[in-house]
Amino acid sequence: MSTTELSILQKIITDLAGQQISDLYLRSGSQPIVRRDGELVTLTEEQVVTAEFLETSLGFFITPAERQRLEHERQLTVGFSFLGRLRLRISIFYQQGLPEIVIRFIPAVPKSLPELGLPAVLEKLIQGTQGFLLVAGPYGSGRTTTVASLLQTINHSQARHIVTIEEPIEHLIIGQQSVVDQREVGRDVPSWEEALASLPAEDCDVVVLSRLPTTSVVSAALDLALAGKLVIAITESDSTVKAIEKLVSGALPDQQASLRARLADALLAISVQRLIPRIGGGRVLVSEVLVGTPAVKAIIHEGKDYQLQNILHTSRDEGMVAFDHSLAELVKTGEVIREEALQHTIDKEAFQAYLRRS
After folding, report:
1. Can you give the residue ranges of every domain in the chain?
2. pTM of this prediction?
């Protein structure tokens, strides 16, 4: 392993830590690239990444056993503690026969729910002892950070046994009021299905899933919620309706009605979020929260998901937060320009109506 190349790698990561950087891209033949405030920026002051530099980086980030897995599967994602003080998520894949490394910077301490700008109803919901809470959003929207903040909120205020199933483990949560066990698929447990199979017999109160990779995992998660546990899961979707459709459509046609019914019965809430540019730099989180009220559960049971958008706009007293209302509030407070907000609206007419209100 080249000492010079290793010191360059460590210097790049150290210099970027603490900046508004979410990801660092290392690919052969180009200078390092970062994602700052959602935009890709080339680090023109750095040297062009070479194949040798990438090999040194791989030797630093992954173990020999993980290297064998990478060579077999041609892609790998691992959590990594950098010099004992910085948490990173390392994603490695191949393009044109050469490895490419994407490094995501993970905050050492998750921000609180108010600091993230999340609706207050979420903190109220996790005081409950059971139910299914789905955190959705597109890739890079801060879903994992939101879940880490939810866990820290529980951890600081409630004596509960929390079990997370992750791939990989990103935020390290140290138990305070709660006992926290974090299990990594592929390292601590062989598969998602086997990890979940043991939980019904365990004395745990809260279960967190960093992904819902298969319908069998979705089904097991709902069973846990219906059996009295609080289940928090992450999925990739840009609206509440699409999130529901994604969970249900993965099942076989003759099983979809049953899965839909169990989702309706277990549902605590669906929180959807995006990050959009903030005036003056940075990005701001925009949320939508669909609470599992009796009316919402009935709609999901009946498969009339198209009616949910109307519920979101008309049920603020029950804790609902419509995405377009959140956008309009950010425009009113001067955090987001109107033109930018219009690019992200779900219902432009509803957004305009919110803006016209005092």
Report:
1. 3-106, 113-321
2. 0.93
